[in-house]
Amino acid sequence: MSITNVRPYKGIYPSLGSDIYIDNSAVLVGDITLSDDVSIWPLVAARGDVNTITIGARTNIQDGSVLHVTRKSSSNPQGNPLIIGDDVTVGHKCMLHGCQLGNRILVGMGAIIMDGVIVEDDVFIGAGSLVPPNKTLVSGYLYVGNPVKQVRPLKESEAAFLKQSAINYVELKNDYLSE
Length: 179
Fold this sequence. Notes:
Strands 1, 2, 4, 6, 8, 9, 11, 12, 14, 15, 17 and 18 form a 12-stranded parallel sheet that branches. An 8-stranded mixed sheet has the order 3-5-7-10-13-16-19-20. 12% of the residues lie in helices and 37% in strands. The protein has one domain: UDP N-Acetylglucosamine Acyltransferase, domain 1, CATH 2.160.10.10. The longest helix is centred in the C-terminal third of the chain and has 22 residues, at 156-177. The chain has one helix spanning 156-177; strands at residues 6-7, 15-16, 21-22, 27-34, 39-40, 45-55, 60-61, 66-68, 82-84, 89-90, 95-97, 100-101, 105-107, 112-113, 118-119, 123-125, 130-131, 136-137, 141-145, 148-153. It has 1 helix and 20 strands. By secondary structure, it is mainly beta.
């Protein structure tokens, strides 16, 4: 990984776990914590400048995704950090802004998740969905649409795929690291 793609903001450097993969074209700036086995794919931009970004173990952030946060203010004293749990798959070209994602979540390609959103564990968000500010997506459901709507409970095979997707990306990142 090149030294220029992981850089500080106001003296705070990203904190990197073990066995991670960060593509050379990705950019991580500031107060960002990556847990073990995280993969950050080409053209990801993550900016932990006005708040923090935390990414859990075995999570993958796919090509072209943008991760950012909400600054602290008098109306929102804590702002909105970006918190992503373990075993999360963030599909290509997603935008995550000041939201909280639990564990075993799949965010479909091109989805946008806005400030103050809470996504509980074991959720599938369909491609192209827009999750408006301050919405909570409860565990165990498929959500799709603009704005997003709860469609139905996850099938057993879909719930199993949430964890398998993360495992697949850990294996892929290990292949990249061995090159």
